[in-house]
Write a structure and sequence with these properties.
Elements (H helix, E strand, L loop, with lengths): L4 H5 L9 E2 L10 H17 L4 H19 L6 E4 L2 H11 L7 E5 L4 H8 L7 E5 L12 E7 L11 H9 L4 E5 L11 H4 L3 E5 L11 E5 L1 H4 L42 H17 L1 H21 L3 E2 L6 E5 L5 H10 L2 E2 L1 E3 L2 E5 L6 H12 L3
Parallel strand pairs: 1-11, 3-4, 3-5, 5-6, 6-7
Antiparallel strand pairs: 2-8, 7-8, 9-10, 10-13, 12-13
Length: 369
C-alpha cells in the first residue's frame, strides 16, 4: 500500500506555515513523539514512580525496535546521552600504544576531530585525509577509523561495507557516527559490520536532544570496558531490595555501558519515533528521501548552483561568488530554513518534505540572484 505522505506530514506541527529543509541541523517532532513524553510524565504523576522497574521493560522493547531498524540484536544496543558519549566509550577503552594512528576523513564532524586530536598519553598520531587518499592512510599502526555515515558539510556517502571489509582484514576498528543519516537512509549492521555505531536521534530520527543509542559489536564487548560505572553495572541490578555491595559483575550486553538511570523521557520519545518509522517502512522512507533529494539537486542547479555530492539526504550546493551564509539568512527571512556549512548552501530533505517545499526554495533563490 502506498504511503500517504501528505497524512504523514500533517503529524508534524512545526512544518505548518514554513518551508523546513534543514533536518541535518534539527529534525522536527511528530505528535506521537511528544505524546510519548507526556504519557510518561502523566504515568509518573499517577503512580508516583512505584512502577519504575517496568520502565526498564519498556526500554528493552524500545531496544528491540531500534535493533529492527538497524538490523542487529537488542543485546547490541545501549542508550547513551549523545554521540560524543558513545565515542568516549570507545576511546577510553582502547589500550593505546605510543604512535598508534587514528584516521578520519577531511571535513568530518568536529566530534571526531576534537576527540582524536586531543592530547593524550601515550601520544597517538591523528591523520585527517581526503577520501581519495583514505586507503593509503591505513598502515600497520592504525588502531581505529572514525567516520560519519554521511558527511555533514557536503553530503558525501562513503562506501561503508567496502571500507568495513578492508579494515576488518587489517584488524582496524571501525567506528561510525550515524547521526547524519540513520532514520533517512537504511542502515544494516549485519551487512556493514561496524565495531560501534553511535546515533544521536535529534536529527534524522526525529527525536529530542538526549535521545541517543550506541550499537556495540558482540566481539568488541568482550574487551571494551565501560567508562561509566553505576548501580546498573552489576548483572543483578534489578534486585533493588538487596543490591550487590561488592565488585560489579557485568553482563555481556551493550546495556553494561549505560551505568546508571536512563533518561526515560528521551527513551520513550525515541521509541515513538522509531516505531513510526518502522510502521512507514525504512525502505519506503529512503526511497522518498532520495527522490526528494534528486528534485532538490535539480532545483539548485537550475538556480546556478553546483552540487557537491548527489544521492544523499544532505545536498550541498556552491554558488560562485555568493556567500552561503548570507543566502541562508536571506532565505530564513522568507521562512525557508536551510543552512550554510563551510561555503556550501546545505539543503536537507526528509520524508516529511514534499515537492512544494522544493518549489518554494527554488522560487525564493531565483529572487536572490
Amino acid at each position: 500500500m502506498a504511503v500517504d505522505w501528505a497524512g504523514v506530514r500533517s503529524e508534524f506541527p512545526a512544518l505548518q506555515g514554513r518551508t523546513f529543509l534543514n533536518t541535518a541541523t534539527f529534525g522536527q517532532l511528530a505528535r506521537c513523539t511528544s505524546d510519548a513524553v507526556a504519557r510518561h510524565f502523566a504515568r509518573r504523576d499517577e503512580l508516583a514512580c512505584a512502577d519504575f522497574l517496568e520502565w526498564f521493560d519498556d526500554a528493552d522493547r524500545i531496544r528491540e525496535s531500534i535493533a529492527r531498524l538497524i538490523h542487529c540484536e537488542a543485546d547490541d544496543v545501549a542508550f547513551v546521552q549523545n554521540a560524543s558519549s558513545g565515542l568516549a566509550i570507545l576511546l577510553s577503552g582502547i589500550d593505546w600504544r605510543a604512535g598508534d594512528r587514528v584516521v578520519i576523513l577531511e571535513n568530518e564532524f568536529p566530534n571526531h576531530i576534537y576527540a582524536a586530536s586531543a592530547p593524550r598519553e601515550p601520544a597517538i598520531e591523528f591523520v585527517e585525509t581526503p577520501w581519495e587518499r583514505f586507503y593509503e592512510s591505513i598502515n600497520e599502526r592504525t588502531r581505529v577509523v572514525l567516520m560519519s555515515t554521511v558527511n555533514y558539510t557536503n553530503g558525501f556517502r562513503p562506501p561503508l561495507a567496502e571500507i568495513s571489509r578492508y579494515l576488518r582484514g587489517r584488524g582496524v576498528l571501525f567506528y561510525l557516527d550515524g547521526t547524519q543519516s540513520v532514520g533517512a537512509l537504511e542502515f544494516d549492521c549485519a551487512e556493514i559490520k561496524p565495531d560501534l555505531l553511535a546515533v544521536h536521534g535529534y536529527k534524522w530520527l526525529l527525536s529530542p536532544n538526549g535521545s541517543a543509542f550506541l550499537y556495540v559489536n558482540p566481539e568488541v564487548r568482550k574487551w571494551l570496558r565501560p567508562n561509566v560505572i553505576g548501580w546498573r553495572s552489576d548483572r543483578d541490578w534489578r534486585r533493588v531490595d538487596s543490591l550487590n555491595h561488592g565488585a560489579p559483575v557485568f553482563v555481556d550486553k551493550a546495556e553494561k555501558y549505560e551505568g546508571g538511570m536512563l533518561i526515560f523521557p528521551m527513551v520513550y520519545a525515541m521509541g515513538a519515533s522509531v516505531g513510526m518509522m518502522l510502521e512507514i517502512g525504512p525502505r519506503e522512507i529512503e526511497q522518498r528521501v532520495l527522490a526528494l533529494s534528486a528534485l532538490a539537486c535539480e532545483a539548485l542547479r537550475g538556480c546556478g548552483g553546483t552540487i557537491v555530492h548527489e544521492g544523499s539526504p544532505i545536498i550541498a550546493a556552491r554558488f560562485e561568488g555568493r556567500d552561503a551564509s548570507l543566502l541562508a539568512r536571506a532565505l530564513k527571512e522568507q521562512r525557508i530554513q536551510v543552512s550554510a556549512r563551510h561555503g556550501n548552501l546545505r539543503v536537507s530533505v526528509h520524508f516529511y518534505n514534499n515537492e512544494e517545499d522544493i518549489s518554494r526554495l527554488a522560487a525564493a533563490l531565483s529572487t536572490l540572484f
